[in-house]
């Protein structure tokens, strides 16, 4: 078990009042599993990732984290323009005080394995949007996290790039055997990527459905082309109340 | 940098380049012509008596005054004093202003406590503190440097703090998710990301430092370009006033140019 939410609730406090963002949330992410959380926009999906990462503590309930580090990937690549691609990838090593030659070598190997060899010394501004998001993923992986938390990592990309990057990210995470928790509002993205989809209600977020997805041999492309895709899409759409 | 001649361009492209070049030349010519016209007409009107050179001076009299000052050896003494006051005040204001901005950024409580004080100090015309400065710091150049710092430091603080606060939230979230504390956040993100704000601060501070040092010399001084201007005004030697003002123009422009060059080098090295 990599991550488990037990009766988790979270309330935001502002001067004008309090907002219950998530309520009695129960779900778990097994090791090596790719789990997508979908829900209407503004339902508190990002809150779930912040809770999972331990950036905020639940108001009630408990988030159990099986050992290992977490890596966070955001909507925008958030690459630092004053650093080269390589220096961007080293960033988590510097922050986590793991900036050893062995870790750096490992990060470089990872970057080269996934086609960034020729870009390492370049500035992020010289890269395409899809390439930048790949750099962001390799940066997340550089500190060797067990679990990846992805917050709508494709939403800033145009549709065609998005399809390509979606497959790209899936393949890299799977071949590195990482556990992943991804939040999105995109139904087809969730079906294409996940081993399990968790459907949330609008705010306060509660789990309204959980679906294991096992067709299409675990490849996003095959999933999208599978006859089961449309049926699954319809199920999720209804659960989202659309 | 000269580009090698490339004959592969189309005729349209050659015309386009020619047009751009012609525009650039025109701007330079008109710019120079305006300066020549002002100086020429000023000299002419003073010579033929349209202006009274006693009131308006004239370019030739300004040149003679500068030559006299240089001959007497006092020109570079006055320039040196003012330049020293301006540069020392500028450096102190920028360094101290930056450090204060960092402290305010690090501690939100401190920032909120001091905010109204900074706002009032910014709005206050610093020249009002003139008498106090003379009494506290005497009539030497310490008082003038203090005035220079006072005039420029508040803007340094406010500019840098605004630069720090404006740093992309997403990048801050990213670093926090990696477990970065405030120190790492500052060194890895806030300081490098706010470099353009710093360059902008330098440019603004240069101008303000000149205002501060000349204002300081107006209030209290025994040497410097500001002193020459005030003294020249009091004894009705407008040649001296104009000469000192002219030199001031050159120095202020030169110092700004230095900062602009530094900015270009820094931005280039950073791969902006």
Topology, please?
The complex is a heterodimer of chains A (242) and B (272).
Chain A (H helix, E strand, L loop, with lengths): L2 E12 L2 E13 L4 E5 L6 H9 L6 E6 L4 E4 L11 H11 L5 H13 L15 H14 L4 E5 L7 H17 L3 E6 L2 H7 L2 E5 L6 E6 L7 H6 L2 H12 L3
Parallel strand pairs in A: 3-7, 3-8, 5-6, 6-7
Antiparallel strand pairs in A: 1-2, 1-4, 8-9
Chain B lengths: L10 H38 L4 H4 L2 H14 L2 H32 L1 H16 L6 H8 L3 H25 L3 H9 L4 H12 L1 H25 L5 H10 L3 H32 L3
Helix pairs in contact in B: 3-12, 4-5, 4-7, 4-10, 4-11, 6-7, 7-10, 10-11, 10-12, 11-12
Give structural attributes.
heterodimer; A: 242 residues; alpha/beta; Rossmann fold; six-stranded mixed beta sheet; three-stranded antiparallel beta sheet; globular; B: 272 residues; mainly alpha; MetI-like fold; 2 domains
What does this structure look like?
- The complex is a heterodimer of chains A (242) and B (272).
- Chain A is an alpha/beta fold.
- Chain A contains 8 helices and 9 strands.
- In chain A, the strands form 2 sheets. In chain A, strands 5-6-7-3-8-9 form a 6-stranded mixed beta sheet, with helices on both faces.
- In chain A, helix 2 crosses helix 3 (101-113) and helix 2 runs parallel beside helix 4 (129-142).
- Chain B folds into 2 domains: 1-51; 56-271, MetI-like fold (Orthogonal Bundle).
- Chain B is an all-alpha fold and 272 residues long.
- In chain B, helix 4 (75-106) packs parallel to helix 7, helix 10 (195-219) runs parallel beside helix 11 and helix 11 (225-234) packs antiparallel against helix 12.
- Chains A and B meet through helix 2 of A and helix 8 and helix 9 of B.
């Amino acid at each position: 078990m990599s991550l488990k939410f037990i009766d988790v609730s979270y309330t935001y406090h502002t001067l004008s009042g309090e907002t219950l963002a998530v309520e009695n949330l129960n779900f778990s992410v097994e090791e090596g599993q790719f789990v997508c959380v979908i829900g209407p926009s503004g339902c508190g999906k990002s809150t779930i990732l912040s809770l999972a990462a331990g950036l905020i503590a639940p108001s009630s309930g408990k988030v159990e984290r099986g050992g290992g580090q977490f890596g966070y990937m955001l909507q925008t690549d958030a690459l630092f323009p004053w650093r080269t691609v390589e220096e961007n990838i080293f960033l988590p090593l510097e922050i986590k005080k793991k900036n050893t030659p062995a870790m750096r070598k490992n990060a470089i190997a990872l970057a080269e394995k996934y086609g960034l060899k020729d870009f390492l010394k370049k500035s992020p501004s010289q890269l395409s949007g899809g390439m930048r998001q790949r750099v962001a993923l390799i940066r997340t992986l550089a500190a060797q996290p067990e679990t990846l938390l992805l917050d709508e990592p494709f939403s800033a990309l145009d549709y065609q790039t998005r399809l390509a990057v979606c497959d790209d990210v899936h393949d890299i995470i799977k071949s590195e055997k990482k556990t992943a928790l991804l939040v999105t509002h995109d139904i087809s993205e969730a079906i294409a990527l996940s081993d399990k989809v968790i459907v949330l209600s609008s705010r306060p977020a509660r789990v309204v459905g959980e679906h294991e997805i096992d067709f299409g041999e675990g490849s996003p492309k095959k999933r999208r082309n599978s006859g089961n895709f449309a049926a699954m899409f319809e199920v999720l759409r209804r659960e989202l109340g659309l | 940098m000269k580009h090698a001649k490339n004959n592969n361009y189309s005729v349209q492209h050659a015309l386009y380049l020619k047009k751009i070049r012609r525009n650039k030349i025109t701007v330079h010519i008109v710019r120079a012509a305006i300066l020549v016209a002002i100086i020429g007409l000023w000299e002419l009107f003073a010579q033929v008596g349209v202006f009274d050179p006693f009131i308006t001076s004239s370019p030739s009299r300004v040149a003679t005054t500068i030559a006299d000052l240089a001959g007497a050896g006092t020109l570079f003494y006055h320039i040196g004093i003012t330049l020293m006051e301006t540069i020392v005040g500028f450096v102190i204001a920028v360094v101290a202003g930056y450090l204060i901005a960092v402290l305010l950024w690090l501690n939100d409580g401190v920032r909120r406590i001091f905010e109204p004080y900074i706002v009032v100090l910014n709005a206050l015309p610093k020249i009002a503190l003139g008498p106090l400065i003379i009494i506290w710091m005497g009539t030497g150049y310490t008082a003038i440097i203090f005035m220079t710092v006072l005039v420029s430091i508040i803007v340094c603080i406010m500019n840098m703090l605004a630069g720090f606060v404006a740093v992309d939230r997403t990048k801050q979230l990213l670093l926090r998710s990696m477990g970065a504390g405030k120190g790492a956040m500052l060194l890895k993100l806030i300081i490098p990301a706010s470099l353009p704000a710093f360059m902008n601060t330098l440019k603004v501070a240069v101008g303000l430092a000149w205002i501060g040092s000349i204002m300081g010399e107006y209030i209290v001084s025994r040497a410097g370009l500001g002193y020459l201007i005030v003294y020249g005004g009091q004894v009705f030697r407008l040649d001296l006033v104009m000469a000192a003002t002219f030199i001031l123009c050159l120095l202020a422009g030169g110092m700004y140019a230095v900062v602009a060059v530094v900015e270009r080098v820094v931005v280039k090295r950073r791969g902006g």
